[in-house]
Amino acid sequence: MFHWLTRIQESTDSADEIMRYFGQMLEDGRHVFDLAAGALLGGTDVESIREDVWGTDKRINSNERRIRRRILTHLTAYGAEGVGGHLAMMSIVRDAERIGDYAKNLFDLGALGGEVPPEFREDLIDLRDRVSRMLAKARNIYETEDEVSARAFGLDADAVCRRCDEQIAAIISSDGPGGAAATGALAYRYLKRVTAHSANVVTSVLVPVDQLGYWDEDEGDES
User: Fold this and answer.
1) End-to-end distance of the chain based on CA atoms, in angstroms?
2) What mean pLDDT, rounded, does the chain reach?
3) What percent of the chain has pLDDT over 90?
4) CB atoms within 10 A of CB 134
5) Torsion angle, alpha carbons of 143, 199, 45, 118, to 10
6) Which domains does the chain have, with CATH numbers?
7) Using 50, 70 and 90 to split pLDDT, how confident is the model at 208?
8) If we measure between CA atoms, which residue out of 150, 187, 177 comes closest to residue 40?
9) Is residue 153 within 8 Å of residue 93, measured between CB atoms?
């Protein structure tokens, strides 16, 4: 579906810029996720990474605005030509931005001194590492439009999201300390949302515009 960018006749540079900015958003999303998850689960000193977390998130937001401006400029010049591709790009750019937002939520849990239930810690660390690897794969799949890898990514994302839901249910039904239970449940929630938004980006190479967001069905209950 990204072939529409190469058909912008007015300026190939503009198309290249959009691709470059979006690739940077995905790279930054993984970076801020790794930093934030380290603050909560890896013992990283919060203050030592705070500036990097917020600076990276600002760059993600700035690149999102750059992409939107260029798409709107092209729509103004060419009207409905390629509108489906433009709408799809708008959608997945938002997903890339939300990865940064949920990573910041993880950072905030660590900054507040939150501790996860000890019986769930190893599982959360395992999921953190798994999601980080998926974020690294996401950029390559998006750039190559590899449909086989995109389908495999979707299956992995489903498995991670199901695991997060199962663990949230387990925490809620446990008798553990309230603060740790809340931190653990939120950590799983944010890991799930990062995974879902990355899956939205990757699976956009498989589905038409009206089916974008399949892994994002519970978007309405975000906080």
Assistant:
1) 31
2) 84
3) 54
4) 20
5) -150
6) 12-221 (1.20.58.220)
7) low
8) 187
9) no
